[in-house]
Amino acid sequence: MVSQVSEDGRVAQTVAASIHGLLNFASWFTLGKALQTSAHGFSMLASGTALDKRSIRALCEHTFIVLETLEPREVALPLQSVPVVIYTDGAFEGTNATWGAIVIDPVSKTSLCFAGTVPEFLLAAWKNLVGEQLICQIEMYAVVCVRWKVRHLLHKRRLLLFIDNEPCRFSLIKGRSPSDPLFRMSHACACMEASLPCFVWYERIASYCNPADLPSRARIDEACKRWGLTFGGDIALPAELLTALVDGVPFPRLAKVNGDLECVIKPQGRKEDDTDV
Length: 277
Known about the structure:
Helix content is 47%, strand content 19%. By secondary structure, it is of the alpha/beta class. It has two domains: 2-69, no CATH class; 84-263, Nucleotidyltransferase, domain 5 (2-Layer Sandwich). The strands form two sheets. A six-stranded mixed sheet has the order 5-4-1-2-3-6, sandwiched between helices. A hairpin with a 2-residue loop joins strand 1 (84-93) and strand 2. Helix 6 (135-149) runs parallel beside helix 9 (180-195). The termini are far apart. Residues 265-275 have low confidence and may be disordered.
C-alpha cells in the first residue's frame, strides 16, 4: 500500500486512514514506537492535510526504512534481571542550557557521570518552534545523549530511566508529542530502541532528589565524590542525528553492522568513538 502511494505521489483519505490504522497497530502491538512518525504522517493525510508529492514520497521512504529495519524482538532466558539505572536532568539559567546524566550498572561495575552544554544552533531552532521556554527540550536532549552513548551497554538489558520532567516522560512512553522538538527526540530514542533494544521503564523523580541535578549544574566533582562516579565528559551526537533533530528529516538509516544491529550514523571523516560504552 505504501509503495503504491509512493509511486502515485498522492493518496486518498480513506487509503491513508487504512495505512495509519495498520501502522498504529504494528507500532503498539508488535514493532515498537519507531513507526509513530509514519503513523502520524498518514494520520495527517487521512484528516485531509495537503502534502505535495515530494513530501508524500519522503514519508513513504521513511516508512520503508523503518519497516525494513525492524525485526522481531528476542527475549533471552535467563534475562539479566539486575537493571541498569540512569538519571537525567537539564538546567536552563539565563542563556546557559546544560544537562547531566548518571549511569549505574552493578553487573558491569559501571558508574559514570556525563555533563555537557546544549549546542546553540539547537536552542535557536527550538526557540523558532516553541518560544523561549526550553526546559522540556533540554531535559529530553539529556536522554537522547545518554541513550546514544551507552547504547551497547543497554542492549538486551533492563533499564530504569529516571527523569524529572513529565512532558518528556510521556513523550518517551508514547513515542510522540504535540511538541515538534520532543516528537523528534522521542523518535530518535525509538529508532535506537529498534536497532539496539533494551527493556526500559521511564519513571518520574522529583527534582530535589535527582542526583543528575549536580552534573547538570556543573557540580561534577561533587557528584563524582558523593556517589563514586567516573566523569565521562560531554557527549557529541553524530552529525546526521543532530540534523534529524533540527530539520525533522527522517532518522538516519538503521542497518546491521558485523552481524549486530546498529544505528548507522557516521558522518564523513568521523571515526568510531572507542569511548562508547
